[in-house]
Every structure is written in structure tokens, then in C-alpha cells.
Amino acid sequence: MSIKAVLFDLDQTLIDFIKMKVEACRSAIKAMIKAGLKIDKREGLKKLMETYHRLGIESDVAFSRFLEEQTGRIDEEILKVGIDAYLETKQRFLKPYPYVLETLETLKNLNLKLGIVTDAPRKKAMGRLNAMGIVHFF
Known about the structure:
Layout: E1 5-8, H1 17-34, H2 41-55, H3 62-71, H4 76-93, H5 100-109, E2 113-116, H6 122-131
Parallel strand pairs: 1-2
Helix pairs in contact: 1-2, 1-4, 2-3
């Protein structure tokens, strides 16, 4: 029997998703504090990560829920600067692990089909693959 295809998980296999998430959230908390949110940096990061774990690590409403739970309301300016800082930092950490590119190139040169199996939402997974410059392998 010969190998015809190789399947990869995306997060924590091709990319350090947790590091990206934590660093993006850390930047968001710092920006929100600078914009007026009254919370300790460490406590803020802990609470925001708890919110993500409770709602789902890919949640699109985690920041709003976090602000509601911490302040009783959603300050749109604090929300905006937090999300902007999160997205900016996330882009800096969207890089494949070392040797991922070389490995994918080697497997592709062997004429193997490559695929992704992930529990991430399709749009977000595709966004990460695009940002890392490896979507064309799959």
C-alpha cells in the first residue's frame, strides 16, 4: 500500500494557535486599559481568556461579553481599540512553525495530496492558511 495523501490538523500542528491567541489578547487588554478600561493587565488577560474558553476559542462575541461582564456595559470605543489591537497582533503571530514550509514543499514534490482537518470554522481556518502563505498547498 502506498501513501497517496497526508492530512494535517491546523492549530497547534502547523501554527502555534495558543501563543497567537494569548499574545493578541494581551495586546487587546493593554489597548483597552489605555482607552479607559479599569482592570489589572493580568486579571484582564485571565478574564478575557476565560471568556473565550467559555464561549468557544473562535468566538466572535468574546470581547463584547468580556466588557459586559467586567463593566456592565459595552463601551464602543474600548471595544474598537481592543479588537483593533487584537487583530494587529494576531497578524504578527500568524506564522507556521519552523520547517512547515519545507515539509509541505517536500510532500507536494512527492505528488502527495495534502489536506487540512480542523475544528476551526472554515472561514477562519482559510484566513490563517492565507495569512501564513500556505493555502496553495491544500
